[in-house]
Structure formats: structure tokens, C-alpha cells
Specification:
The chain has helices at 3-10, 32-40, 59-72, 101-115, 123-137, 174-177, 181-188, 205-217, 225-228, 268-285, 293-301, 326-340, 357-364, 384-392, 404-414, 427-440, and strands at residues 49-54, 77-80, 93-94, 97-98, 142-146, 163-166, 198-200, 222-224, 229-237, 240-247, 257-263, 310-314, 317-320, 345-349, 370-373, 399-400, 420-424. It has 451 residues and is of the alpha/beta class. It folds into 2 domains: 3-301, Mur-like, catalytic domain (UDP-N-acetylmuramoyl-L-alanine:D-glutamate ligase); 310-440, Protein-Tyrosine Phosphatase, Chain A. An 8-stranded mixed sheet has the order 4-3-2-5-1-6-7-8, with helices on both faces. The protein has a 6-stranded mixed sheet with strand order 12-13-17-14-15-16. The protein has a 3-stranded antiparallel sheet with strand order 9-10-11. Helix 3 crosses helix 10 and helix 4 (101-115) packs across helix 5 (123-137). The longest helix has 18 residues, at 268-285.
Length: 451
């Protein structure tokens, strides 16, 4: 089996991420099918240590930072995040790099007979099991596992992590997870395990109470970085930001303190993610996975996470960001004002049908002189004509482009060198825009699936 054949085989299975009409219940979303497959594979997820991370915003960035730090510390790492930008192989990162086509194809071929025995198994469940199988085959020491959606019924919730973490919770996937922060938090808190520490980012009281109650009810040590850590930002520029961090109120004889840390990721929210990542690493160190201060510095400084406030060009500034709900968009606009002021800006916007699109546009449109509406390649992408109807209710107009490449070419023509273009609303749109930019610039885009 070659990679193309493996790719075709995998995409022959149901992909719930491309559908809006799948009910969220234990019949459709559960761990039964993936558990059965993993059992037939001798439970490869038990052959390495793991960290499980759920949340609404920042879970991918936090996962990437933890992985980068652990790898800098000399540990052989696996990283499982979703969705991918350009290649299916991004689901299977070992030591910071997606596995090669041959490795993935070989893995699919090995587990194919077992997959075919599991009735009703979905694409994401297969990808989850395949990642665990490949991480085991690659002799990883520790894997950082990001939950896709929710947590309680997520396919990744079959692992026995040594640390769990919950990033910032806001309104997203409300048609499935519930329309209150407490119901959403309840689903995310489903990853918490008895006796396993859970670390949470700052939360609204409604969400924090649910997480803390869940932890206490099953005897999981509870750590809130807003109560147990103190962060002070020092400097910020277009190359990144620096900060100091110290642990407080831990009741221990010694506490963690480190100054002048640097991350290349932009936005104040990334400082929160970095704080959470370090808190996770600190807990890992107490469980045998020690890393030095130098490794923390090197890991944070070297983290790469495309599509999140990523600057692709400087004349004009071309920024792509995967913000896909109103809370993420709010963080994004605040970061743009902080970094660029109120210079002339052009917005390229597209979103999935199940998102809070009007609220996103309400936050975005006052900051932009020109708006171009488009759609990504994804099945759930809202049509730009419908986006325009929503925007007109906000008393704004916009032009429409059929795809990200057309939108980007148009934006480049209308934008002065000192001005800014932002592409946002969907990580799928960001992927399309990145591919379009690399094509327009005649630059190679590594690790892109050719079909």
C-alpha cells in the first residue's frame, strides 16, 4: 500500500467533521469503536506516557509548546492535533516532524485488517488509533494529545494520561456541547481522570466551577494557573514576545521562577498558553519527565505553530489566523490593534456554517476599510453570498471571491505596502490562503498532500 492508497482508504470512512447533522450522543460519539480497535492492536497507547489537552481556544498552541519543550529536553515526542492544514501526516508528528508518507502508509496497511472488523468506525477514530499505533512503533517517550471536540465522548479519551489540561473555554460547537459555559465545561472536564492532576487556564467562574467540582469529585489534583502562577509580559514586537513567570501559593519549600522567556507566537492569549504549557511541563518533571530551564527556554523559543497570527508577508503585512468563534476573534482584533494600530486593513473572511458568524463579523468589521468574503474548500464552509447577507445587516458591504486565491490576489491589488491584509474566520480558510500565498510567491510548500 502506498500513501495515495492509504489516503483513499481512510477517506472512505465517515467524517463527522464535515457534517452538521450528526447528533451528539453516545450512539454517534463514543470511545467504544476506537477502544475495540485499539484492543485488537494490543493497546499501543499504553506504550508511551501522554498528556491530554482539551478546551475551546489555545489547545493546539499549548500542545505544540509542550511538545517543543519536551523535545528540547531530550525526550522523544509524539504530537496529535487536529485539524491539519495541508497534509494528513500532520496528525502524526514525531520529534516535531510529520511522519513520512511511507511510514503512514505502512501503518495503515498494518492496521487495515483490524479497522475493517469495527462496524461504523469513523475517520477521526481511525486517525486517533493510527496515531497511537505509529507513536508506539516510533518508540516515543511521551505524546501530547489534543482532543478534537468536547472531551468526554472524544475518541482521544481512551488514554491514561499522566497530566491533563484544559485551555480557555468559550462558546463553540454549542449545537453539540450545549449553549452554556457550564455544559461546555462539563464536556471538556470529561478528560479528567482520578488521581491525575488537571491544570486549567483562566476561566469564567461558570466554567471554572464545573472543572474544579469534577476534579474534586474524583480525586484529581486541581491546579489553576490564575491562582498558582504569576506572569509578567516584558516586551512584544513582530518577532515575538518575552515574559517572566513564577509559581505562587504552591505550599512547597521551593517554587519555580524563570525570567526573560521568549516565544515567537504573537498575541496576549499566547502568553496564557505558554504559562499553561510550562505548568504542564512542571508537573511532568515531578513525574519523571524532567527538563532543564535551558530546555524550557529553547523549546518555547523554537515552537512553530502555523496559521495562528502568522505573518506571511511584510509589504504589505499578510496575516493569517484561524480564529473561528467570537471569543477568538475578539483576542485577534485586540492583538492587531496592539501590534499595528489603526493602519489601513483589508479583511478576507470565511467561516463554517455552524459558527457564530454575525458576532464574529461584529467584532471584525469596524477595524477594516475593505472586506472580501469567500469560502474554504471544506464541506461546512458557509457560502459567501450568505455571509454578505449577514454583513449587510451590520450596515457594511463587501465584495465576494470564489476562493481564497482569488480573494488574496484582489486584496494584494487594493492594499498599499504599508497596510495590512488579514485572513481569518476558519482554519480551513487559513490553509487555503497559505497555499495560495505560496503559489503566488512561487515558493515551495512542504508537506502538502498532492491530492
Amino acid at each position: 500500500m502506498n500513501y495515495r492508497e492509504a489516503f483513499s482508504f481512510l477517506y472512505g470512512f465517515a467524517d463527522y467533521t464535515g457534517q452538521n447533522n450528526i447528533p451528539y450522543n453516545r450512539q454517534t460519539y463514543n470511545t467504544d469503536r476506537v477502544s475495540l480497535l485499539l484492543e485488537m492492536l494490543d493497546n499501543p497507547q499504553n506504550n508511551f506516557a501522554s498528556v491530554h489537552i482539551a478546551g475551546t481556544k489555545g489547545k493546539g498552541s499549548t500542545s505544540a509548546m509542550v511538545e517543543s519543550i519536551m523535545r528540547a529536553g531530550g525526550w522523544r515526542t509524539g504530537l496529535f492535533t487536529s485539524p491539519h492544514l495541508h497534509s494528513l501526516r500532520e496528525y502524526f508528528r514525531v520529534n516535531g516532524e510529520p511522519l513520512g508518507e511511507e511510514d503512514v502508509a505502512e501503518g495503515v496497511e498494518k492496521i487495515k485488517p483490524f479497522i475493517e472488523k469495527v462496524e461504523g468506525i469513523t475517520l477521526f477514530e481511525i486517525l486517533t488509533a493510527l496515531a497511537f499505533f505509529l507513536f508506539s512503533e516510533q518508540n516515543t517517550d511521551i505524546a501530547i494529545i489534543e482532543a478534537l471536540m468536547g472531551g468526554r465522548l472524544d475518541a482521544t479519551n481512551v488514554i491514561n494520561p499522566i497530566v491533563t489540561a484544559i485551555t480557555s473555554i468559550s462558546y463553540d460547537h454549542t449545537e453539540m456541547l450545549g449553549n452554556t459555559l457550564s455544559s461546555i465545561a462539563g464536556e471538556k472536564a470529561g478528560i479528567i481522570k482520578p488521581g491525575i492532576p488537571v491544570i486549567t487556564a483562566p476561566q469564567k467562574p461558570e466554567a471554572l466551577g464545573v472543572i474544579e467540582d469534577r476534579a474534586r469529585s474524583i480525586g484529581a489534583p486541581f491546579i489553576s494557573i490564575s491562582e498558582n502562577w504569576e506572569l509578567n509580559r516584558q516586551n512584544i514586537n513582530l518577532q515575538g514576545q518575552s515574559f517572566d513567570l513564577r509559581e505562587i501559593g504552591n505550599g512547597r519549600k521551593t517554587s519555580f521562577r524563570i525570567k526573560d522567556l521568549n516565544i515567537p507566537l504573537l498575541g496576549e492569549h499566547q502568553l496564557i498558553n505558554a504559562n499553561l504549557a510550562i505548568a504542564i511541563v512542571y508537573e511532568l518533571s515531578s513525574r519523571g519527565f524532567t527538563v532543564s530551564e535551558e530546555s524550557i527556554r529553547d523549546g518555547l523559543k523554537g515552537v512553530v505553530w502555523p496559521g495562528r497570527l502568522e505573518i506571511l508577508s511584510h509589504k504589505p503585512y499578510l496575516i493569517v489566523d484561524g480564529a473561528h468563534n467570537s471569543a477568538s476573534v475578539k483576542y485577534l482584533t485586540e492583538s492587531l490593534v496592539s501590534l499595528f494600530g489603526e493602519t489601513g486593513k483589508t479583511l478576507i473572511f470565511g467561516a463554517s456554517t455552524d459558527k457564530d458568524i454575525v458576532e464574529m463579523l461584529e467584532n471584525l468589521h469596524p477595524h477594516f476599510h475593505e472586506i472580501i468574503l469567500t469560502s474554504s474548500h471544506h464541506k461546512r464552509a458557509e457560502k459567501p453570498e450568505k455571509l454578505l447577507e449577514m454583513l449587510k445587516k451590520l450596515k457594511r458591504n463587501a465584495s465576494i471571491a470564489e476562493c481564497a486565491e482569488e480573494a488574496l490576489k484582489r486584496a494584494l491589488k487594493m492594499t498599499e505596502p504599508e497596510e495590512l491584509i488579514l485572513v481569518t474566520g476558519s482554519l480551513y480558510l487559513v490553509a487555503d490562503a497559505r497555499e495560495a500565498w505560496f503559489k503566488i510567491s512561487d515558493l515551495p510548500l512542504e508537506d502538502k498532500d498532492p491530492y
